[in-house]
Amino acid sequence: MIPYPIRNQFRHTIGQLDMPPRLLLGPGPSNAHPRVLQALGMRQVGHLDPAFIKLMNEVQDLLRYAWQTENKLTIPVSGTGSAAMEATLANLVEPGDVVLVGVNGFFGLRLVDMAGRYGADMRQIEKPWGEVFELDELKTAVAQHRPTILALVHAETSTGACQPLDGVGDLCREHDCLLLVDTVTSLGGVPLLLDEWQVDAAYSGSQKCLSCPPGISPFTLGPRAVEKLSRRKTKVANWYLDMSLVGQYWGSERTYHHTAPINMNYALREALRLVAEEGLAARWQRHRETAVYFWQGLAELGLDCHVAEPYRLPSLTTVRVPDGVDPKAVTGRLLSEYNIEIANGLGQLAGKVWRVGLMGFNSRKENAALLLAALREVLA
Ligand SMILES: *Cc1c(COP(=O)(O)O)cnc(C)c1O
């Protein structure tokens, strides 16, 4: 044998992978549905195989159902929700475009950061975390800033608030502005009608209410957004997420751009098949019923929700930390003693709330009951 100078300091002998059986009731990831995990393990085909192309079409149609849109450009982005978020901005923002973001939580701030990196002339309107924008406030801001894009977060996972979108689509059309919406924590769990609400661009994630592992993320552009993309004077400043290129692979040309994450597409197909099987109305209703059950249980424990009931998300609840309780000690004990993951607050709500997700497959009464029982013991 040739004496290669091989170093062995990282050649550890490690055990077979064995992760603890966590119940993931935080802001994501949520537990994947067993059928989704099973689909993930299906044998591979190539990314241009006719069998895969058939699957791509199925995924696109099931996504259109889940989002209630007829948008042609409706595809999964290779990457997590933030990649799909970045894809909407990278494709729609040209340097100098005025982008108005409604900031009432952590993900609004992320939109501001990302859009700024693509050269947007950034404008923000703000609300305390846990509150939502009223249509009149949006009207005033749009009239004042005359943005090219208005970006809002439908389901703010950092606060638990659901931004009403009634009338916002009309407002944007009156001002010839595109409506971009983050639907990461609403798709598949909270009423969401993209075309009805005249949303021009949206993105989501797989590991929230779709109960699929993270790594692949829904993305869609409506006709007005596609037109803006096709009229660009500058190239999309992000090669990987350039939809004028990626769209050719997902469209009829099937030109290679990057290798699609084959097995993640299997998983997403199964997750979306579960949505279609259950039906959107039943699924939204289930999320609502589980959340109401959880909120009632919190009240019985003397715990308060941070968000006013009309705007409270069924998929994510922010629970106020009672005076004198160390929030991190509680999340730590829930994890180590009960295998339940919930999360602490972020930003303005750090130290003030816990964040509890009852999303997708996890949105079931027995999970809410288990968390309530564990909380009762830990807080005693
Ligand atoms: C989780 C989340 C994201 C980001 O998704 P990642 O998968 O973490 O990249 C964006 N927006 C909202 C509202 C989210 O909850």
SSE layout and pairing:
Blueprint: E1 23-24, H1 34-40, H2 50-67, E2 73-78, H3 81-92, E3 98-103, H4 106-117, E4 121-126, H5 135-145, E5 149-153, E6 155-156, E7 161-162, H6 168-174, E8 178-182, E9 201-203, E10 216-221, H7 223-230, H8 243-250, H9 262-278, H10 280-300, E11 316-320, H11 327-338, E12 340-341, E13 343-344, E14 353-357, H12 365-379
Parallel strand pairs: 1-12, 3-4, 3-5, 5-8, 8-9
Antiparallel strand pairs: 2-10, 6-7, 9-10, 11-14, 13-14
Helix pairs in contact: 1-9, 2-9, 10-12, 11-12
Spatial separation of the terminal alpha carbons: 66 Å
Query: What are the distinct ligands in this entry?
Result: pyridoxal-5'-phosphate
What is the fold named in CATH at topology level of the largest domain?
Answer: Aspartate Aminotransferase, domain 2
CATH architecture of the largest domain: 3-Layer(aba) Sandwich
Report the structural category.
alpha/beta
